[in-house]
Amino acid sequence: RVVREERDYHLVLTDIPREMAIEIESHPETWPGLRITRSSRREYPAGSTASHIVGYRKQLNETEIAKRKTLYPEGDPLDYATGDWSGETGLEKFYESSLRGLRGLKRITLNWKGEIASEEIIRAPRPGSDLQISLHVPLQQQIESFLADLLDPQQKEIPVSARNSPTPPASVAKPPAPRGGCITIMDVRTGELIAAASLPHFNLQMMVEHDPEEWQRISADTR
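Request: output the structure for the sequence above.
Response:
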């Protein structure tokens, strides 16, 4: 008796070394039942820079996949499956259909041992498109640093009326730090946004590497 679940593929390891993948794919008879799949992963070398603008992705669960099947009864045009990543906020969400691409389809025939007997390409994969935005990174980082200084509760800020004085009076009360802030800079000739900062922000790489402590800190911040 063959249990259907025994024929389904289950995730065993992620981020395996290239040498391991080559070994398994080169000698399928030595590794029966194992299959190598490739996937993409976002990398954020700029960290928290423009995090609200760029946005983040999340993995779709079974409930969300069921909703898409109801929305597209004749077939999901983006062919989402449980565990796929989808843009949740920012540019990631707005341009999801262009950035995602489309996975290929392969028909695999197995023998009675569960070993691959033949493979047939049904649909070639379609890579996602690139997105080039108008933000000027050095300027973006500069205004984010400026906002971060204003939002620092330890910042020794003095009122504007006292800033022009060469020796501001020690008795001047320090105003409370603002809870948040944003700055946008536009090129009025083209309408392009060349900087758009909103703070507090978060490190986008955390959404890939899943830092529990950092996520807890952000979740606890009501801003």
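Residues 155-163 have pLDDT under 50 and may be disordered.
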